[in-house]
Amino acid sequence: MPTLICDCNKTMPLDPRALGQSLGEELKLHSTLCRREAGAFQQAVKSGADVIVACTQEKRLFAELAENTEGAVSPIKFVNIREIGGWSRDARSAMPKIAALLAAAKLPEPEPVATVTYKSAGRLLVIGALDDAERAAALLADTLDITLFAQGGAGAQERRYPVLAGHIDRLQGWLGAFELAWTQDNPIDLDLCTRCNACVAACPEGAIGLDYQVNPDACTAQRACVKACQVAGAIDFARAPQAHTEAFDLVLDLRAHPAFTQHAPPQGYIHAPGGSPSLPDILKLRDLVGEFEKPKFFSYRQKLCAHSRNETVGCNACIEICSAEAISSDKERKQVKVNPNLCVGCGACTTVCPTGAMGYSYPRANEQGARIKAILSTYLQAGGAAPVLLLHGQERGQALVEDLGRAARVGATQGVPANVIPLPLWHVASTGIDLWLSAVAFGASQVVVLATGEEAPQYLEGLQAQMQVAEAILEGLGYSGRHFSLLQCRNANALDRELKLLAPHTGAVPRMPGRFAVTQDKRGTLELALDHLVEQARVTPEAIALPVGAPFGEVLVDKEKCTLCLSCVSACPASALQDNPLMPQLRFVEKNCVQCGLCVTTCPEDAISLRPRFVPGPGRKQPRIVNEMKPYGCIRCGKPFGTVKAIEAMLGRLAGHAMFQGAALERLKMCGDCRVIDIYSAGDEAKII
Hints:
689 residues, alpha/beta, four-stranded parallel β-sheet
């Protein structure tokens, strides 16, 4: 896999020998690879092997050059080393970082994922004041099939588009599948109205505007309009409200208050509250005709889900954090449901999921983990120290990092420090405690998440909560310093200031970097990372207290209240609570507990509470008894069939009931077999023949 590096007209102090040693290949330094030395690129793309070009500035030019080169068959990967490494005040120290970025590019591409398909025929619904809606429609009518929903205003005389009016009851759906439900409750039927303005002229109260709808607050029921409209018959005050539904592919909403209030509205819906859509909005709508695909960003394993058992709800983390309202509860089926058409791929649900039931697929956790491991291992082997991973979005975040590098080139900023390694993500909310702790185990002194203002507020809260848990674990294990930070920056200068402040607070790392591989199983990855961090820990306390909401902890059982009914065992989705088939015991495996709370909400005696914590020792992986009782033996055959406390509690509650008196009450002290025998052998029992 040949690697081509260029110092961009000698503006970067690249060391080809040091980079070549780190990558295991001999590198030649170019200065004008995109111009005079383009022949080297053309020769490389004829090799058939993947070609890595350390330049994104001229990506388009290189792609065109490859198309016009006879025999060019090599796939090409582009890596930015200029803005994030070479253009910085400490660029001469950035060779380990540049080597790490080039090494990551050598990894295979992520495996393909399932896709979600949208089909749009261009049926656009424009909601707003009639004059605003008509102006917007004029900009789109050559491409889209437009229907207007009038919300007041004054329309043109010429009827150019179908116009609906009334009360909107519901608007739901997504690109290619919006459904509008409305009630036509105005006396004027717009389908029959000819816009002759006879009713407008005849109305003495001025209750009819040029939207051709009657204002009920102004109308005094003189009905002059009805007489004026006798021929067309469009006005009927006795007409009952009529419910309608209609399907659309796109929605342009010009009202002040949007139809969709969630942070991430459905694709195909655009809100322009000023009454006039922007040019980007117009261009976007014009392009949304045809068939489109996006990755299916999530995977869901119901067996691991801690949302519901027996219609009792425990964990709601994914539902509460989703900014697209794409996740809903289906507690009857013990699961959550994700609408893939509404999902925007932020991955926040996978970040806060304590069990790993919700997984991120684009890219998968194991692929992302391999990338992080390759970056950190190459950086450390190349002589780098105290690496900081800067996780940012691939759009605004990427642009902000590149702006910082360009500003550094002209001396306006310091630039990206030599030990800060930017790593683009589809969305910054898509990684969490499993990958972060793995990164620290691999040698990262800090994991920094860059937020640029486009993120939903609950995402930032979720990320901060995850960071508090991870930091508490590392602090408890004796890893000093700060390991996790959430930066909120809107421009390059703000990012420059924040990155300068990181340097004095780098966190301690394991003496030996971890060698484990990140898996797609979230809990499995956490165990591998934690085992390595515990093995290399400075101190090993008996237990580390964690913040509320942590995915680790113990279950506390009040033995005075607990009757050992074991309803908590059947409710536990992670097998953290277990029974003993040989004797009345409740056992607990702390490693399995995800603190979902299903046991708490299920317990009929309110005998269970949770305590978030992390136990570094081997005891967390071993079952321990949290409650046990004497068995209750059948009074007839002696076979144990319950606990003394449970049977006594049942007798106490049913003793006053009319159905459980005398022999019937005694039968409650028998096992199931003896109870049946006693009923059929009793002489005083009434039998239906």
